[in-house]
Amino acid sequence: MMDLYNHFCQQLREKAVQSPVLALSGGVDSRVLLHLLAQYHQHYSVPVRAVHVHHGLSVNANHWVEQCQYWCDEYQIPLSVEYVSLDTQCGESIEQLARDARYTVLSKHIQTQETLLLGHHADDQLETFLLALRRGSGPKGLSAMAAWGAFGHGHLLRPLLHVPRSVIESFASQQQLQWVNDESNQDVRYERNFLRHRVTPILCERWPTIHQAVQRSAELCAEQEAVIHELLANLLASAISEQGGLSISQLQPCSEVVRRQLIRQWLAQQGVVMPSRLHTEMIWQQVALAELSANPKLQLKEYQIRRFDGELFCVMSMGDLIDWQQSIQLNMPLILPDQLGILTLSDSQHGHIALPKERDMLWVSFNPEGLSACPVGRAGSRKLKKLFQEYRIPSWQRRRLPILMYKERVVAIASLFVDRDFSGQDCELIWDK
Description:
By secondary structure, the chain is α+β, with helices and mostly antiparallel strands. 39% of the residues lie in helices and 19% in strands. It has a 6-stranded mixed sheet, with helices on both faces. A 5-stranded antiparallel sheet has the order 11-14-17-18-19, with no helix packed on it.
């Protein structure tokens, strides 16, 4: 039987893990890791700790917290508990929501020189590979789970990724360990559970070495993806502007295959979930190649793909601020909506704005509709729509710029200009984003 502790130690030594942090769900996999980590801590005196994520999806969730705390107290390992709530009505699968929430909170716990330990094993890898295959994924998706990678401010390690579930369960029984059982793991309505209970047992019976075969395929796919990234790195870098936009003119001479890959790599840099092949084609056909007079956009979950000045941009979906308005007072910070920061009309001897007589008539808006202004140094008023075009402000940002108003007149637009009629040195409009 595999010496699980030596295997665990070897994985940590190979990656020079200094401060391991265990993601402890309480299931058999992480429970075994907790046992191994306690031994490792005792032998090598390295700092260790654990984190448990409470999703609130099970009536037993509070009991799992108590169990994890009990085991950690036994081993004298500090435990942090994170509580998350999931929006189960948003249309995403509960599996995906729970996974995203878990990784989000775990990433906050991993600092420089720390490594998150995850309990994924060879059967998990097989399931992940099959799920990617069902989705029609390319090399990136078929790479499945990496044993080692960057995470938070540090790294993550899956020390049991080459170990079958049967070995882990045998070890747990041999060591007389207790663990919690998530009742949802038996529900075959969930895709991973369907594979676990209905599909992989048949595959393993027919091909006993399928775990190793899948791991080899996943590693080969990961190698291919790394090679593609390396070969296209210079081309991608030259196609991305200082503003983060992707040059359409630089993509046009590329083959369809290369163009799709460049778009995918660009979106990956933005932190966007990998789009489908259909979506990458829609980005090119419906956004990049739209009529010059158009203002195209493509919604990708919480992101939008937009076009401006010959470049593609990936921006977060934005709230409608057209009806928002608020009075502003001198030296009183104003909190802007939709996480747009803080706006302050600050008293200053070297400012650019002259204070009007009726200061209580100053207010802030985001609606440029029908407004005109004459920036300092220019002659004649122009509609804000025209001024935004001249200042090369992308269309999706034009209703995100705070407009300082006096009665019904534009005083200034934050970070852009001051109206000629309000030019002076009384104060400064400061936008802390």
